[in-house]
């Protein structure tokens, strides 16, 4: 099972673009001046745009590769049968997009509305983001993490059928994190991460 460390790490990565942009604007925005390149003048606004675009591209790369790295070892153990248990997927659907609304608002609004060159605004925004990360980690709300919205790993709301050793069948209504997209006529293995959230991979 996951603890708070894994969840906190994912949320920090999720909010990294805001944190880095805030630090950049606070320390460097007023220090960056125009630049002469081959006789052409590049404005400070364009230099800011280049740097922020680089931050966003770097963050997108992290969003894509971090889940792969975190689930690599667990996936191997489950494929080998060392962890998890076999299940069949009966029903599946994507979670409501409203689950991502809170994160998107707290990610985008600070970039638009906060004056990061002000020390007071910078410290307040930074403190609020840290508080949000701690709160989301404590309530185990990892299904709303945007890394699973951008990467190959997705969150599904799912109904699983499991057969016990006594051949008794029972269903599990839960969320799963997986990079599988075809759930028909296949057997899968699941491993509990937190509460009613599981990691799912195809049984081989």
List the helices and strands and how they pair.
Layout: H1 4-28, E1 35-37, E2 40-42, H2 44-79, E3 85-93, H3 101-113, H4 119-138, H5 147-150, E4 154-163, E5 169-178, E6 187-194, E7 197-202
Parallel strand pairs: 5-7
Antiparallel strand pairs: 1-2, 3-4, 3-6, 4-5, 6-7
Helix pairs in contact: 1-2, 1-3, 1-4
What are the salient characteristics of this protein?
204 residues; alpha+beta; 5-stranded mixed beta barrel; two-stranded antiparallel ribbon; 7 strands
Describe this protein's structure:
With about 200 residues, the chain is of the alpha+beta class. The chain has one domain. The protein has five helices and seven strands, in the order H-E-E-H-E-H-H-H-E-E-E-E. The strands form two sheets. Strands 3-4-5-7-6 form a five-stranded mixed β-barrel. It has a two-stranded antiparallel ribbon with strand order 1-2. A hairpin with a 2-residue loop joins strand 1 (about 35) and strand 2 (about 40). The longest helix is centred in the first third of the chain and has 36 residues, at about 45-80. The chain is elongated.
Number of helices: 5
Strand elements, count: 7
Question: How confident overall, as mean pLDDT?
Answer: 84
Low-confidence stretches: none
Task: Indicate the structural class.
Answer: alpha+beta
Q: Which strands sit side by side, in order, in the main sheet? A: 3-4-5-7-6
SSE run: HEEHEHHHEEEE
Number of domains: 1
How much helix, percentage-wise, in residues?
40-55%
Indicate the proportion of strand residues.
15-25%
> If you compute it from the alpha carbons, what radius of gyration comes out, rounded to the nearest whole angstrom?
21 Å
Shape: elongated
Instruction: Profile the largest sheet.
Output: 5 strands, mixed, barrel
How far apart the termini lie comes to: 22 Å
């Amino acid at each position: 099972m996951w603890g708070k460390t894994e969840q906190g790490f994912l949320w920090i990565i999720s909010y990294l673009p805001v944190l880095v942009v805030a630090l950049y604007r606070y320390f460097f925005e007023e220090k960056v001046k125009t630049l002469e390149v081959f006789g052409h003048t590049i404005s400070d606004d364009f230099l800011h745009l280049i740097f922020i675009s680089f931050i966003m591209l770097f963050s997108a790369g992290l969003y894509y590769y971090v889940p792969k790295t975190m689930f690599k070892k667990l996936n191997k153990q489950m494929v080998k049968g060392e962890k998890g248990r076999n299940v069949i997927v009966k029903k599946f659907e994507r979670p409501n997009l409203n689950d991502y609304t809170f994160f998107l608002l707290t990610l985008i609004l600070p970039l638009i509305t906060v004056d990061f060159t002000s020390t007071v605004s910078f410290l307040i925004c930074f403190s609020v983001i840290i508080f949000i990360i701690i709160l989301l980690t404590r309530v185990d709300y990892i299904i709303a993490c945007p890394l699973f919205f951008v990467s190959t790993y997705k969150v599904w709301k799912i109904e699983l059928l499991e057969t016990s050793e006594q051949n008794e069948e029972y269903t599990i209504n839960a969320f799963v994190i997986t990079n599988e997209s075809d759930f028909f006529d296949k057997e899968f293995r699941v491993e509990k991460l937190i509460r009613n959230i599981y990691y799912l991979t195809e049984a081989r």
